[in-house]
């Protein structure tokens, strides 16, 4: 017996043997079982997805004589043994008229075809017209077909197949039940090829089947044809190296080498891999495409490890590489790779375009961005809570910082009135830092060195007409103990508590309350802050800090985040190794992320309440019927 190619030998003969296209299979099987048949079906889809195969299976269901049920004798499970089924499988069934529209485009051919529609079937139950590539018919042919397609005789069924349904007239589309067949994903192709080769007794590599599945581009027929070619090329076996050589694809090891060089930030190795690739004369654009595809797999491996495929037999390697990158790095590298692929047309040569794209990935790594200073933030927050002293100390600060001349005249005027105001020089002691107590006892010699750059008589008359602030100084004798809070304006003591505690208790144990207090001072950002913010302190022995991580954040674990947290703790004087323990978090304890969200909501609610009680806002509401859009309210720094 002559050899039969795999595409024909393993062509499905029933709906249950059909691979993929479950949505079409379900609709047709239910229609056949319920006897709800349409007179015209249109199957659309790319090449090799099963359009003609479905049409032939449907023709057998309509004409099977062994398993026919009901008054019409149709079935959804043709036997494949009766004369009608065998004749259809062998292509000799008289009442199945297959027409290649690409070779019969004239209207005369269509009229000749339609002249025989009125006659009853010769051998089967239905006369089935299977018109392949129906979009190739001319406009006149479509017009001639319309009337018969809309109201055919009861014994006639039309099965149309096309790869380009957009070229069909709307009048034809409206007269048919349309089924769109999907592309075959590589996973489904590999699964089917594994079954076929197992039945054929052919040895194979799984990675080789993935190469064939991708090369088929969604067509199962193309995949079977390529498998035939691979078996012949590999002398009866399907091996990865043989398939790669047959298809002319890149050696996957070079792409892995590029990714490992990116992970190690090894520029020398990166350029060496490109040089080794150049010796094989590859398509550098395809190299960049493969690199972007691998970066996509790394991103999937970080978020959903179970979803990583074994397309090149490298699933374990991909999972290992994913832990060496941060999510920010992978997203940045992917974006740079995609943009570099589009810029290749403007490059002087493709190799330099590839090298520049790889170097750009390393040049713009997030690790190269300097960390913003963290100390100024708490320093700026300190003066905000002193609202009671702002009216009295604010003018004193502006005078002491800007000019010291106007501060001396009030001191000279106040002694004749009353002695207590003489205690105001403490602000001078804070600003001058040296010799401050001496000018406080002798206020007269201070104006002498100051007027050297400016004339003395000019500043003297200025304070004379300023008796107005004197009544403000009247309550000053009451807060005589105010010199005690003088160190409060110094911003240094407030940020010191977390650092001081960390420095003094470097080996002390951290608990959840201390973790909340020192979290902001760690200066973490990005995904690292998000990961740490969803953790609680499980245990701390002074050398190892175990953080309890919410299971919803388990996919974000990476070695780089652990290193960043350890480095931040060390900078705060709390050197520790960090480990993660994944478990459900107790609802009674608040994580830094939950605390931040709660404070944000409270500040927003407070800001909304302040605006609702603002007299100006109330006037606008009364006069114009204005409404406050709470979602647009942003708390200011002054709001808690």
TrEMBL record:
Ranges of Pro residues composition bias in the record: 407-428, 440-454
Catalyzed reactions per annotation: DNA(n) + a 2'-deoxyribonucleoside 5'-triphosphate = DNA(n+1) + diphosphate
Bias type Acidic residues, positions: 455-493
Entry's EC annotation: 2.7.7.7
Molecular function GO labels: ATP binding; DNA binding; DNA-directed DNA polymerase activity; metal ion binding
Sequence ranges assigned to domain AAA+ ATPase in this UniProt record: 37-200
Record-linked InterPro entries: AAA+_ATPase, DNA_pol3_clamp-load_cplx_C, DNA_pol_III_gamma-3, DNA_pol_III_sug/sutau_N, DNA_pol_III_tau_dom-5, DNA_Rep/Repair_Clamp_Loader, HLD_clamp_pol_III_gamma_tau, P-loop_NTPase
Keyword tRNA-binding recorded: no
Region Disordered, residue ranges: 366-506
GO biological process, one term: DNA-templated DNA replication
GO cellular component terms given for this protein: DNA polymerase III complex
Entry keywords, A to Z: ATP-binding, DNA replication, DNA-directed DNA polymerase, Metal-binding, Nucleotide-binding, Nucleotidyltransferase, Transferase, Zinc
Family classification: Belongs to the DnaX/STICHEL family.
Protein name: DNA-directed DNA polymerase
Organism of derivation: marine sediment metagenome
